[in-house]
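Q: Hi! First time doing this. I have a protein sequence and I read that you can turn it into a structure. Is that right? Here it is:
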Amino acid sequence: EELMLEPGLKVLEIGTGSGYHAAVVSRAILPGGRITTVEVVRELAERAKKALASISAHNVEVVIGDGSVGYPNNAPYDRIYYTCAAPGVPDTVMDQLGEGGILLSVEGPAHSTQRLIRYERESGGEITKTPLTYCVFVPLVGKMGY
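A: Yes, that's right. Below is the predicted 3D structure, encoded as structure tokens:
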């Protein structure tokens, strides 16, 4: 809901896991939308690729790599979201968010109460930050993780 998904969007997911979130988002952005999902754990990424192929989620690209730095190869994105908690959003990820884009992150200490944060890039590049609800997610792994 907070991502305001619609057909045709280009989305980056940081943390593929089982591929469930990518599958849901892939349907919400059809027709014309594409989602890139990045997973640092090779075995999880391979399993997610198979699961997504089994449901014909052809608009999903699963990348094995360090999602903590985003995935600049397909940037800019209309939407970026984390499926794990991060210490914050690094500039390397924020710079991949296009004008009018929305980024959802979970921020706070690992293994403790965290906060869902919504960022929006306004025209002209200004970023607005809106804290939302409290939550607890698994910690982000990688260069910019915990």
